[in-house]
TrEMBL record:
Pfam families: HTH_20. This is Transcriptional regulator. SMART domains: HTH_ARSR. GO terms for biological process: response to cadmium ion; response to lead ion. One of its GO terms (molecular function) is lead ion binding. It comes from the Bacteria. InterPro entries: ArsR-like_HTH, HTH_ArsR_DNA-bd_dom, HTH_Metal-responsive_Reg, WH-like_DNA-bd_sf, WH_DNA-bd_sf. Residues 4-99 form the HTH arsR-type domain.
Length: 232
């Protein structure tokens, strides 16, 4: 699931088989918000028995799509890494391509802003990436996208804590193809850190029923100060 070890046809076929089962697909989608969840909760999400969920989780672990965190007697499942999340996000692109502009979105809030694993996606994520590239706040390097000091200073002026904002200068981001917008949003460790800061600052809040992120009125105002604007 990375550039260093490209997929061969047999691995690609195995990944396709993993996604072909609706219960396994439901488990993967439930973990796209970056959370870690126990098997029982994932069984409920997938609508299957505990034994069936256990078999599906075993296959997803063996297929490299899930990671496991053990804490005492408890076991929590998560997506294996950012590469898996980006791949799942991109898998939805054929569906988005078939959607015309006249078709109402199934979930407007999810299209407007959501988490792609742990970073900001949707209209807001794309607007951030494009605005900051245009302003020169993001610089493309061989190992990814770098946040420049002028951007960290602007985040502090907009209300972010100084330490987290400047710690992001040492992180790298990458372009992640957005399945609803079909343009790039900012992923990687830098994208995760920026999203975390916006949540902690109260600019965004998590929806309860899915992975949508809801901009607050104060958040929209502060985001506009940073050149990030989306239609109301």
């Amino acid at each position: 699931m990375n550039e260093a070890s490209p997929l061969n046809r047999y691995q690609l076929a195995e990944l396709g088989a993993l996604l072909a089962e609706p219960a396994r697909a439901a488990i993967l989608l439930a973990l796209m918000d970056g959370t870690m969840r126990p098997a029982g909760e994932l069984a409920d999400v997938a609508g299957v028995s505990a034994a069936t969920a256990s078999a599906h989780l075993k296959r997803l672990l063996e297929g490299g799509l899930l990671g496991l965190h053990e804490q005492g007697r408890h076991r929590y499942y998560r997506l294996a890494n950012d590469d898996v999340a980006a791949w799942l996000e991109a898998m939805a692109l054929p569906h988005a391509t078939l959607t015309t502009s006249k078709t109402a979105p199934r979930d407007a809030a999810l299209c407007r802003a959501r988490t792609c694993y742990r970073h900001l996606a949707g209209q807001l994520g794309v607007a951030l990436c494009e605005a900051w590239l245009q302003r020169g706040w993001l610089h493309a390097e061989t190992d990814g996208l770098q946040l420049l000091p002028v951007a960290a200073d602007a985040l502090v002026r907009a209300g972010c804590e100084q330490a987290p904002a400047h710690q992001m200068l040492h992180l790298r981001g990458r372009g992640c193809l957005d399945w609803t917008e079909r343009r790039l949003h900012l992923g990687g460790p830098l994208g995760v850190a920026i999203t975390s800061v916006m949540l902690e600052s109260g600019w965004l809040r998590r929806a309860q029923r899915n992975r949508a992120l809801l901009p607050t009125p104060d958040g929209l105002r502060r985001l506009a100060e940073l050149g990030i604007r989306i239609d109301p």
